[in-house]
Structures are given as structure tokens and as C-alpha cells.
């Protein structure tokens, strides 16, 4: 006996299908997002999560066949378990990453568990909707899958546009779990309450309340958990921690000490170390500035450190910095330690900041050749092995950068760590495929610190100096560099040449050829 009419009951079941599908897709996207952040190489992580979950959904559907005789109770138990496992998945993965558990193993375990539970939903819901009103199997399947697919659409859009920017990965997953538990528990405990004994109803109610209390408690403690995790990963001197629309930014040190004690981490990886960043930025910038340099374009470099080195040269009229993260630029402008480290570059009227994807900006700006060319283009980008950066190390990208150059212009490229020679020489092949001539060289770094959960920094940085005619590797006579000398450049060129891997094809947009990078660049 239903408390509502069959038509209303059928509608309520379809609403439950809709909510379950939306929550299920949020769990799936959450696993992909946090695994990509923690492990890197988003293509691999997405492939692992999707393939394991689809397989597990098939297993869950088979197992649910044996539960159809008690479909209401089974569905209530499945939804409570899914709310608990899915809601806690991001938090447990992050905790495992920070405190030494195998993140990849946890990822597979959660993908399997969530997939099995999602797969069990549809057979049980099919049984429940048929109990309300008998209809042909084809019509029932069409109704269920229509609600399922619409729910997946809503969940897929809600994750990047609502949950992630407003709540973050951890709180967003916990809230999704709570919605999942409420929807499943309400459907069973109200609409199908007569299918359960009084004892079963009390048990299911207690389980759902316990799940909701646990999820709420964890949500209340997310702030403290994140702080403890940051201290475990970065040490106790974390000053700034931002989750922007583009990336996570963490600043440590530099508050009451010299700016050289500052470290900048992006997505958990060391991008800037105040102790030796001058070695990286001097090696990246100064060889390219030997020659005309009135107009300079910096792709990336939102921290302002490459711009600092550019602005040291007389004769610079304009510097355009194209970087995607506006909040990093604001931090570089306003944080006392970081702005001191970059020489207050953002206060220089010659610098113009553009917050855009470098690839898109180059393509739009250079279409039709309306923009004036640049004497120097500096690609201050993450390592090519980071999946999200692969397009910025493609033949097409370097072709766009070449179009932005004046006839005698030079292109400087951070091409990854010398410890990854295949990646480095693939960058070289990609630049040469854009009809530029290259001179490779490297620079040694001092600090290679790493804490728990942090990738160790490379021993050396690799660079390319490129132009339409064979460029000459050297430096101008102007003082102001802290460490870089012509002899160091020559030594770096000889050292990188010993790692050459011949015959590598260029990387393209449709066929990226970079593996997973061990570390980021500057």
C-alpha cells in the first residue's frame, strides 16, 4: 500500500533515480579531479577511474539480481553505503596522500566500491517502479535511463560550476553524500515503508542518521583537516593557501625572514624556491635578451619573477605577461615577501598583465597578424610531462609563438628537467618542427628539498633558446645577475648535449608525446 497515488509514486522513484545519478557522477568526477591533483597525469587518472567504475557497475548489477526480493531494504542499504563511501572518498584519498598510504591503491578501491554500489541501483529501482505500476520492460527501462541521464547531466555540470568553486573538493563530496543519503532514505522509509518490517525501518533510519551525523562532523572539521594536511605536506610555516579556479597555491616562509626563504607551491609541487629561483629565471631570461628587446612577451610567469629579470634590461618598452591565474598575479603584487622577491615587477608601468590561457591568447592575438611582433618571447611554463601543460609544449603552440616573433626575435623555453631527457628532447623536436633553430642548455639548482607528499625538485633545469636563424648562446655585458656567467652557459650547453636522445618526433595536440613528469619547473 503506497501513501500516494501510483502516478505520484512512480514520479518519486524517477526523482530518486535523478538524484542518485547526479550524486554518482559527482563521485566519479571527484575521484578524477583529486587523483589528477595528487598523482598528476589527468588522462591516466580519468582512464583508471572510468574503466574501473564501469567494470564495477556491471558487477554491482549482477549482484543486485539476488537482492530484488527485498528491493526496498536493499536499495536503502545501498544508498546509505554509497553516501558514506562516496562522501568520504576525497577526504580519505587526500589523507592517504599526505600520510603515506598508496594513493593509487586507494583510488582503485574507491572506484570499485562506488562503481559496485552505483551498478546495484538500477536493477533495484527497476523492481521498485514495477511494484508501483506494471508496465512493459522497454518502457520502464526508457523512463529509468532518461531520469538517470538527466541526473548525470546535472551532476556533471554542478561539480565544476557549483560544488568545486563554492565548497571545494572535500566539502563538496561530503555534501553530495548527505544529499544521496537523504534521497535514498526518504524514498524507502516513506514511499516503501510497508515493504519493511518495523525493525528494519528502525535499523535503516539509524544507519542513515549515523551516516548523516558522520558526514556533518567531517564537514565541520574540514578546515582543521586541511590545515593539518598542509602542515604535514609543507611544514608549519604555511602563510597563504588558495584554491583558485585554476590551481591550488601555497606560500611558505618569507614572513619575518628574508624573501629568499619563501617557497611557492602550485598543485602540491614546488614551483619557486627563494633560495635559488634566480638561477632558473636568469638562465631562462638573459640569454634571450641579448639583442633587440623593446617588446617582450612572457607566457606563464604569473609570479612576476621572469618579468623582474626582463625589466632589469635597459631599452625595454613593454612587457606583456599572459598567465591564466589572476589570483596568483594578485598575490605576486600584494604579498610582501613575494612582491619583494619579484622586485615589485607588477608596479612597473611597462608591465601589462593578461589573465588568459597562453595557447588561446596566442591564437586569438595572432590571427590576421594584427598585433605588433615581439622581440623576445619567454615561455615560463610548468614541465611538459604535466598533462594539463602538454598543449603548451606542442608543435602547434610553438608555431603560434614563432608567429608572434619579430624576424630577428628570440624564443626562450623552459623545457623541463634534464633528468627527463626524452621529454626535454621532445620539446626540442617540437620547437624545431615550428621552423625554429634551437640551442639547448641547462642550469644547476642548489635546493632540492622535499617534504611528505611533495615531489623532489630536479637537480637541473633544461632550456632552449630558439630563433629563425641559429641563435648564439651568450649574455650581454650589463651587470645585475647574481650568478649566471657565460662560462656557466657554455658548461650547461655541453652538459645537456650529453643527454641527447636522437630521432624523437615532435609532440602535437592530437598526439602528445610527453610522459608523466616527476617535478615541475621554476
From TrEMBL:
The chain crosses the membrane at residues 12-39, 45-64, 71-99, 105-129, 141-164, 170-192, 204-223. InterPro entries: MFS_trans_sf (IPR036259), PABS (IPR030374), PABS_CS (IPR030373), SAM-dependent_MTases_sf (IPR029063), Spermi_synthase (IPR001045). It is a multi-pass membrane protein. GO terms for molecular function: spermidine synthase activity. Pfam families: Spermine_synth. It comes from the Bacteria. Residues 502-522 are annotated as: Disordered. It is an enzyme of class 2 (transferase). Pathway: Amine and polyamine biosynthesis; spermidine biosynthesis; spermidine from putrescine: step 1/1. S-methyl-5'-thioadenosine binds at residues 247, 357-358. It is found in: Cell membrane. Its main location: membrane. It catalyses: S-adenosyl 3-(methylsulfanyl)propylamine + putrescine = S-methyl-5'-thioadenosine + spermidine + H(+). Spermidine binds at residues 281, 303. Keywords: Cell membrane, Membrane, Polyamine biosynthesis, Spermidine biosynthesis, Transferase, Transmembrane, Transmembrane helix. The active site is at residue 380. Its EC number is 2.5.1.16. Catalyzes the irreversible transfer of a propylamine group from the amino donor S-adenosylmethioninamine (decarboxy-AdoMet) to putrescine (1,4-diaminobutane) to yield spermidine. Belongs to the spermidine/spermine synthase family. Homodimer or homotetramer. HAMAP family: Spermidine_synth (MF_00198). This is Polyamine aminopropyltransferase. It comes from Streptomyces cavernicola.
Amino acid at each position: 500500500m503506497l501513501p500516494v497515488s501510483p502516478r505520484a509514486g512512480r514520479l518519486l522513484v524517477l526523482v530518486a533515480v535523478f538524484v542518485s545519478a547526479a550524486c554518482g557522477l559527482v563521485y566519479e568526477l571527484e575521484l578524477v579531479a583529486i587523483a589528477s591533483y595528487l598523482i598528476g597525469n589527468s588522462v591516466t587518472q580519468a582512464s583508471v577511474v572510468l574503466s574501473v567504475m564501469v567494470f564495477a557497475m556491471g558487477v554491482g548489477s549482477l549482484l543486485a539480481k539476488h537482492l530484488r526480493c527485498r528491493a526496498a531494504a536493499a536499495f536503502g542499504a545501498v544508498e546509505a553505503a554509497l553516501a558514506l563511501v562516496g562522501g568520504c572518498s576525497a577526504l580519505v584519498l587526500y589523507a592517504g596522500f599526505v600520510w603515506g598510504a598508496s594513493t593509487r591503491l586507494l583510488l582503485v578501491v574507491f572506484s570499485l566500491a562506488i562503481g559496485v554500489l552505483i551498478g546495484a541501483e538500477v536493477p533495484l529501482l527497476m523492481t521498485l517502479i514495477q511494484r508501483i505500476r506494471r508496465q512493459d520492460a522497454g518502457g520502464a527501462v526508457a523512463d529509468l535511463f532518461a531520469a538517470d541521464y538527466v541526473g548525470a547531466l546535472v551532476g556533471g555540470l554542478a561539480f565544476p560550476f557549483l560544488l568545486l568553486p563554492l565548497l571545494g573538493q572535500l566539502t563538496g563530496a561530503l555534501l553530495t553524500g548527505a544529499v544521496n543519503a537523504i534521497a535514498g532514505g526518504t524514498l524507502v522509509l516513506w514511499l516503501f515503508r510497508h515493504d519493511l518490517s518495523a525493525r528494519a525501518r528502525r535499523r535503516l533510519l539509524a544507519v542513515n542518521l549515523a551516516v548523516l551525523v558522520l558526514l556533518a562532523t567531517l564537514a565541520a572539521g574540514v578546515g582543521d583537516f586541511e590545515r593539518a594536511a598542509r602542515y604535514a605536506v609543507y611544514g608549519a610555516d604555511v602563510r597563504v593557501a588558495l584554491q583558485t579556479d585554476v590551481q591550488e597555491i601555497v606560500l611558505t616562509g618569507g614572513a619575518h625572514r628574508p624573501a629568499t626563504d619563501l617557497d611557492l607551491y602550485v598543485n602540491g609541487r614546488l614551483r619557486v624556491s627563494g633560495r635559488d629561483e634566480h638561477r632558473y629565471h636568469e638562465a631562462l631570461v638573459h640569454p634571450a635578451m641579448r639583442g633587440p628587446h623593446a617588446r617582450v612577451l612572457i607566457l606563464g610567469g604569473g609570479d612576476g619573477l621572469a618579468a623582474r629579470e626582463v625589466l632589469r634590461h635597459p631599452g625595454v618598452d613593454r612587457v606583456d605577461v599572459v598567465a591564466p591565474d589572476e589570483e596568483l598575479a594578485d598575490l605576486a603584487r600584494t604579498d610582501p615577501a613575494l612582491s619583494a622577491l619579484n622586485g615589485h615587477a607588477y608596479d612597473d608601468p611597462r608591465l601589462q598583465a593578461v589573465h588568459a590561457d597562453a595557447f588561446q591568447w596566442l591564437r586569438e592575438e595572432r590571427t590576421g597578424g594584427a598585433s605588433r611582433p615581439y622581440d623576445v618571447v619567454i615561455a615560463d611554463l610548468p614541465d611538459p610531462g604535466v598533462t594539463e601543460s602538454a598543449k603548451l609544449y606542442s608543435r602547434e603552440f610553438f608555431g603560434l609563438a614563432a608567429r608572434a616573433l619579430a624576424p630577428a626575435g628570440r624564443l626562450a623555453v623552459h623545457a623541463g628537467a634534464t633528468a627527463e631527457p626524452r621529454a626535454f628532447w621532445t620539446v626540442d623536436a617540437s620547437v624545431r618542427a615550428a621552423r625554429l633553430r634551437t640551442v639547448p642548455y641547462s642550469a644547476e639548482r642548489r635546493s632540492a628539498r622535499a617534504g611528505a607528499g611533495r615531489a623532489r625538485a630536479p637537480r637541473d633545469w633544461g632550456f632552449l633558446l630558439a630563433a629563425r636563424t641559429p641563435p648564439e648562446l651568450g649574455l650581454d655585458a650589463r651587470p645585475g645577475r647574481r650568478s649566471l656567467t657565460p662560462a656557466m652557459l657554455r658548461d650547461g650547453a655541453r652538459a645537456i648535449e650529453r643527454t641527447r636522445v636522437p630521432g624523437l618526433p615532435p609532440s602535437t595536440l592530437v598526439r602528445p608525446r610527453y610522459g608523466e613528469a616527476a617535478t615541475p619547473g621554476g
